Amino acid sequence: MNITVGNRLKQWRKAKNMSQEEVADFLHISQSSYARMERGKSGSWSSYVKEICELFEINSEELIKIGLRSDTNENADSNKNVVNQLSDKIIAQYEARIKELKKIIKNLIKNQKQIIQDNKKGSTNM
């Protein structure tokens, strides 16, 4: 599956007249890491589904379907396993982002309360 996805990544990159380094920069990874994805030596592309889809203007279904059709020797259970693993990675990424955003919101609320308290102290001292 990684080989087929890698081949498609290469096709999409060339269609956009981009270098491996440009794509790697967009994904915030090294050129060598991206090159391994294109050669099918790495499955880390699944961690960058959103970014890949954004860059190449495709939807995630296109990318996943490509992966599912990639190896005719894989059986249906194996394909389901790949989709489940990919889904789990995407969910984990979103959960991590939600956790980060909750911390940010908590800090903003804390800062807002502090500003309100400081303003109250300032107005009572006048």
Automatic annotation (TrEMBL):
GO MF annotation terms: DNA binding
CDD domains: HTH_XRE (cd00093)
Residues annotated as domain HTH cro/C1-type: 9-63
Matching InterPro entries: Cro/C1-type_HTH (IPR001387), Lambda_DNA-bd_dom_sf (IPR010982)
Coiled coil regions in record: 91-118
Family annotation (Gene3D superfamilies): lambda repressor-like DNA-binding domains
Keyword annotations from UniProtKB, A to Z: Coiled coil, DNA-binding
Protein name (record): XRE family transcriptional regulator
